[in-house]
Amino acid sequence: MPYGCVSKKCWNLKYKEKNMAKKLWEGRFSEKTTEPVEAFSASIEVDKRLYAYDIAGSIAHCKTLAQAAVISDVDADALIQGLNQIKTEIETGKFRFDESLEDIHMHIESRLFEIVGKVAQKLHTARSRNDQVALDVRMFLRDETLNIIRRLVDLQYVLIHLAKAHEDVVLPGYTHMQRAQAVLFAHHLLAYYEMFIRDIGRFEGGLNRINVMPLGSAALAGTTFPIDRNYTAKLLDFPEVSANSIDAVSDRDFILEFLSAASICMMHLSRLSEEIILWTTFEFGFIELPDAFATGSSIMPQKKNPDVAELVRGKTGRVFGDLMALLTMMKALPLAYNRDMQEDKILLFDTADILSACIDMYVRMLPHLTINKDTMEKAATSGFLNATDLADYLAGKGMPFREAHHCVGRAVRAALQQKKELHELSLKELQSFSALIQEDVFDSLSLKQLIDRRTSFGGTASKRVKAASKKAEQQLGKISKRFGISTTGQG
C-alpha cells in the first residue's frame, strides 16, 4: 500500500482490529489502534529503505551499552548476532513486513525478539525512535550526498572531454534569446562546469552538517544511562556529536540544505536541458541526439523528440516542490519531535532518486551528442555578432566608446536595409560612418578574431578556454582524490 494511504478495503472493515505484535508504547493504552489508523500512520513502505542504517546504528548502540556496562557482553553479542541475521533476511527477501508494526525500527525490534527472546527488549535502553530515526536519516544522507558528488564529478569529466573534443567550434552566444556575440562551444560547456562545481561545493559543505551523531539524545532530554556518545560516534564514523538533545531530534536543517542544494543543481540541469531541446530543433540544428536517448511520435513519423532533456526539465519542478513541502512542514513546528516529520523521508528519497537519475542520464547521453560544427559557425557569422568588435575597433582608434556604439548602430541599420552583414559592407560604405575605419577593419570583424581577441581572464579566446579546461581537470583531480573517486568521466 502506498505510504500514507488508506485502502477502501481497510476503511470498510469498520475499525476491525487484528492480532498483532505488541507495540513499544502500548502499555499506556487500554485498546489497540484501529486498522485504518495503522494504515494511515504506517511509514514502513518508505522507511524500510533505511534498514541497513537502522541495523548499523543498533549494533553500535549495543556496543555502547555493553561498554557502559548497561547490558552484558553476552547480551550484546546475542543482539548483534540477531541484528546481522535480520539484515541477511531483508537482503535475501525472506523478511516479512507488516503494516501493523508502523516503521522499520519496530519491524527490526519485533523480529529480533523472535530470534533472541526477551533480551531484545534491552536494545531500546537509552534511546528513542526520535534519535534513532535522526541517526538513520543522517547516515543515509551522508552516503547519498557522497553518491551525488561522485556522479557530479563524472558529469564534470564528461563536459571537459566534450569541450576538448570540440575546442575549435564556434557558435553564437545569446542574451535575451537574441544572437549576441560569438563564443567557443567549449567555453559555453565550461560555463556549466562552473555551475556544477558550485553544486559540488554546496553538497560538500552540507556533509559537515549531516555528519553530526544524534544517538543518545533519546526522546528529547538525553538519557540517565552512563553511555559514551563519542564512542558511538567513533563506531559510526561521525566526527561530531550533537550538542543539544532537543535540537538533535527536531533538526531537519540538514535535509533542507540537501534539498536546497539539489534544487539548485536541478535548476542547472534544467537550463542545460532547455538548451539541448532548443539546439536539436530544425530552427537551430546545432546538435543531434543519439537515437538511444530520443523517442519518436505515435503519429508523426519524422519526429525525434528530446525526451530525456524534457523529463529532466520536468522533474526539476518535483524537486523544487519537495524543498517547499519540507520548508512548509517545518515552519511552525514547536520543539521537539512531531509526527509531521515522518513525511520528511518521502521528500528526501524522492529528491535523491530524481537527482541521481538525472545526472546519470546526462553522464550517459552527452558523450554521444553529434555536434554540427558547420551549422553553428554559419549561425555565428550572421546576426551582426561582430558589431561590438567594430565598436571596440573604433574605440581603439581613439573614438569614445559611447560614440563608437552610436556609429556602429547606424552602420547596422544601413546593413539591415541592404540585407547584408557588417563585414559584407565595402570599405567605402564603412568609412561613410567614420574616417577612422581602415582596411584592417575586416580582420577585426573575422570570426577568428571575434574569438581570439577576447583574451581577458575568463573570456572565450582559445588560449583562455584551453587553460580553463586544464585548470578544471586539475580541480576535479583534487576533488576526486579528496573523496576517493576513480573515474574517467566516460559515462
Summarize the structure.
With 491 residues, the chain is mainly alpha-helical.
Low-pLDDT residue spans: 1-21
Strand order of the largest sheet: 1-2
Strand fraction: under 5%
CATH homologous superfamily caption of the largest domain: Fumarase/aspartase (Central domain)
Separation, N- and C-terminal Cα atoms: 36 Å
Biggest sheet overview = 2 strands, antiparallel
The CATH topology of the largest domain is Fumarase C, Chain A, domain 2
* Mean of pLDDT: 92
* CATH class descriptor name of the largest domain: Mainly Alpha
CATH architecture of the largest domain: Up-down Bundle
Global shape: elongated
DSSP E strands, number: 6
Overall number of structural domains: 3
Any idea what the radius of gyration is? 31 Å
Given the helix and strand composition, which structural class is it? mainly alpha
Helix content: 55-70%
What string, H for helix and E for strand, traces the elements in order?
A: HHHHHHHEEHEHEHHEHHEHHHHHHH
Structure annotation, total helices: 20
Overall description:
The radius of gyration is 31 Å and the shape is elongated. The N terminus is likely disordered. It is built from 20 helices and 6 strands. The protein is 58% helix and 4% strand. Strands 1-2 form a two-stranded antiparallel ribbon. The protein folds into 3 domains: 101 residues, Fumarase C, Chain B, domain 1; 226 residues, Fumarase C, Chain A, domain 2, CATH 1.20.200.10; 58 residues, Ribonucleotide Reductase Protein R1, domain 1 (Orthogonal Bundle). The chain is mostly helical and 491 residues long.
